[in-house]
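Example record used in the benchmark description.
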Amino acid sequence: MTGTPFRVTIIHPCVGRHIGMEKYIRTWKMEPLSAAMVAALLPSDVERRFYDDRLEQIPFDEPTDLVTISVETYTARRAYQIASEYRQRGVPVLMGGFHATLCPEEVLQHCEAIVIGEAETLLPEVIDDIRHGQNAVVYRSSERPALQTSPDRSIFHGKKYLPIRLVEFARGCRFRCDFCAIQTFFNATHSHRPIDHVIRELKDTYRRRQLVFFIDDNLTSSLSQAKEMMRALIPHRIRWVTQTAINVAYDDEALSLMKRSGCQGVLVGFESLDAAALGQMNKGFNLMDGGPREAMKNFRRHGLRIYGTFIFGYDHDTEATFRETMNFAREEGLFIAAFNHITPFPGTPLYSRMKSERRLLYDSWWNDQRYRYNMIPFRPAQMTARELADRCVQARREFYSWSSIAQRARHTVNLRDPWMFMNYLIINAMHQRDVEGRNGLPLGDANWQSDILQSEHAVAAAELLREKQHGPL
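Model output (structure tokens):
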């Protein structure tokens, strides 16, 4: 209709919700940067609204012409519930995100159109097609886009997120870890934004004493580019954290630049202390140059706090694996840590191997109504699935106990900055509360009682997709 703007509703789905659940998990309330990127990519004459399923009720009856949902594996079931609500009302749904690329045939059953791969070069075209009633069903990105767009954070106004500013410098990672869906999605490639764009975004959005989180899958996947970016950060005196592989611990120049540019700490995927497990996950490089304890010495020497992540359930893991890992995490004074079971995400070598070995307990655990967060979706080799789940939870309880928090607080690197020490106490207390809050969380909203709709075009579209399949990008 002439003069009527095309209306797009952007939805960020939650992972799941218990019946009667009122408050959502606090540590999961970060700004969803993917939604802000979609908003930024929409044509200027499009009217946009944004709803975060973790924070607010979605007004399904509010008039709109299109709904966009970025789907992750953990949010897939809830995304399909939301899509069903809109499609019952005759509103078309566009889906993209990691899960749409990893499981396109499945996602096609729940939407009118799908974006496979990165959306930068495709979304304006898709929106134009849909608003003129001429859309294809499948849109596929054929190459890595130039990362020129900054997110539109205006959609976050009035929403109560954690006071952490999320910024993207680079996407992808060159490592091919067995369990990682990132390497599948990006085909083990890495790309980064122009550094001047990142600096401009920080100037426009950074607030004094705010913590910036560079959400890159591995900020130092290209060390030369990362160093260039850190040099550019030095004059701006920001406080930031990020994610990196362990190899950066053996580059003194990189560690020095991190500290000088305001880095407060890094997430490091230690994953395991066992050589056999690291070999099975294709991550033997974690033992380079003395391994995790030597890496920790280097990080501490430069005053960098460490968020260590560990995964359990590989074929050599036993009860002793948990004790060795816990001793390491406490003795080395990790700022925070994650103790998770391995999760066979679709599209990963791990998933393919477990499927071929007939060890998966569900055809697709992310869609199964019986599955709950922290349940084990496969048969471990050295213990039962229940034992593995219980030991992961017990590890979290011990690490975030007050005695452990006090022990780790005594490390100089955690004490030396009063502002970061205050954050240490707050963040550890939040994680302590959330140990039980996440346990047993259903995937999807347990309060939702309707049937999930499936697309009539799904079979034909899936056949077309198979004919044109040339990899994930």
